[in-house]
Structure of Probable 26S proteasome regulatory subunit p27:
Amino acid sequence: MDNFTDPNLSTIHVPSGPTTYTHTTPDYSTLTLPQLITRKDNLEAELKALGSVLDSHGVTMNTTLTTFDGYPRADIDVAQIRVTRSRIIYLRNDWKGLMGRIERGLVEHHEGMKISGQDRDGKSEEEEGDVSTTSESGEVQTSSSPPSAPEAPFAKVNTVEPGSPAHEAGLKVGDLIRRFGSAIWSNHERLRRVGEVVQQNQGRPILVRVQRKTTDGVGVQELEVRVTPRGGWGGRGSLGCHVVPI
C-alpha cells in the first residue's frame, strides 16, 4: 500500500469555541485505490475520536443541549459539542462519497485484471477454470460461480489453535479475509462487525471468504470455508483464531 498521509486528518483537534465547517465535495479522482483506502481509515479514526469527545460529555448526536426553558445547559460544554457534531456530519458526508469512489475503484481494478487476463491468453478467468473453495470439513473443492461483487481483504488470520473450530473449518495463518458472514471491507468497523457475527451465530456455520497464497508463494487462491463458533472446544473463545485488521 502507498505511504499516503492525509494532511487534513493527521492531527485531530476539536476547538472549544464556535466554528463553522463549510462542506465542499473533495476531489478523489487523482488518488490511487490504496490512497483512497488510507483516506477512509483516517476518516474513520477521526470519527472515532470525535465520538469519544461526545462520550466524554455524556451526549450523543441527538441529545438536547438546552434546558426545558430554552437556555443552554450549564453542565456541558455546549459550544464544543456543537462543533464536534458539525465535524462529524461533515466527515460522514465525506465518508459516504469516499466509499462510493472506493467501490468504483475496486470494480475498475477487477475489470482491468479481467481484461489483462483475456489479452494474455484469450480467455477470461472464468473460462480458464473454476474457483477453488473449501468445504466445512476443510476439503478443497471448486465452484464455477465468481463472487457477486468485489470484496477487498480487510483482515488477516494471525493464529489458529489446533483442534479449534477455525482449524476444523480449514482456516490457516496468513489467510486474508474478504468476507466474514455479513462483514466485508466497507462495514466491518475495525472488526466490530466480525465479533457481532460470531456472537449471533453460536453453533451455526458462518461463510468466510479468504485469499490464500499458493504453496509456491506466487499465486493466490480464492477460498470459501464455513466456520461454526462454539464454546467448550478446549481453548479460548468460540473460534480459536486471532484475526487482525489490515
Observations:
- The longest helix spans residues 78-121.
